[in-house]
Here is the input.
Amino acid sequence: GGFRAAGYASIHMDDCWEQKDPPRDPATNKLRAEPTRFPNGMKALGDYYHSKNVSFAAYTAEAPTTCGGYPASANHEALDAKTFAEWGVDYMKVDGCGPADYYAEGYKAMGAGLEASGRDIVYSCSWPAYTGANESTKPFQTYIDDGCNLWRNYRDIQCNWHSLGDIIQH
Here is the structure.
């Protein structure tokens, strides 16, 4: 039984898990989970996933807020990376959602923070999706040098054939 028997190896939690008010813990400055939906916090969630033999994937953004308007990691990369490691996160999707002129600094800082966290965390960067549609001009070596293990090159997929076809055409 369980997640693995159903074919799942990982559970990915996207945007909107964060507590909005206050946006960070006043004592530690760490991101926190929304307490009604996650009353035991993110470490307990990660421990639960690991007890079920699935990996824990979480989300943040290189912006003051996520695309959904929740607190994100801009200017807090080292602290957030350490926090994600403490929670047992195995995979981080890091979106954009903010000023593009911050991405070069922010994605590099998050990569360094994840590498220094003491935990092996897969770093999924959305940065390339925000650097234009011409794949031949994107600085892929920079993404690799900054720690990205994989990335999204194009728009988010929507639940329709036009969206899928647009991505395939790209």
Remarks:
- Strands lie at 10-12, 55-61, 91-95, 122-125, 150-151.
